[in-house]
Write the structure tokens for this entry.
Amino acid sequence: DTGVSQDPRHKITKRGQNVTFRCDPISEHNRLYWYRQTLGQGPEFLTYFQNEAQLEKSRLLSDRFSAERPKGSFSTLEIQRTEQGDSAMYLCASSLADSSYEQYFGPGTRLTVT
Amino acid sequence: DQQVKQNSPSLSVQEGRISILNCDYTNSMFDYFLWYKKYPAEGPTFLISISSIKDKNEDGRFTVFLNKSAKHLSLHIVPSQPGDSAVYFCAASERGMLTFGGGTRLMVKP
């Protein structure tokens, strides 16, 4: 399977704990994106990377959120001191830089903060 | 403020008929528009896109129409099949960052 993969698929955590999610993009894609989707809403953009560089961050990405893409391949999204409002589906997508609008999504990580 | 809006939360269509899903936007800087389909427990699947300089793009049973003056786009599915039942999101791209509408649940009845 050469699509976008995400791990874990589900995460339940207690409020105040830190969590980390991983995304592996399509191998030849140099852009990687993180989105968040809450129930009944469309995905909302969080941040994106071109290769290792983080080029854009949404104001939705509070100081408790950090994303990395250290070698320009996989990416991690960490949430520190989780809050109940962080409960959502976290989606990763990837694309080629010259057709960045055409993004391919992974299955998502569903986070539940209790 | 919602820059991309899908005003119909759901749509029910008979198999074989046309499904028309609508989307409105407010930002004139969007350069591409896209439609995604989403099944439960899966990520959105890319369906079709259109550049802001075009007014129509067709791919098999799917056609997207763009009316820039009205800031409106629509997705036509002809003929509709039961397997098309899913949530459809329209999205607009500005420098590669996608803004999504809230989705329309399409149900195609056999």
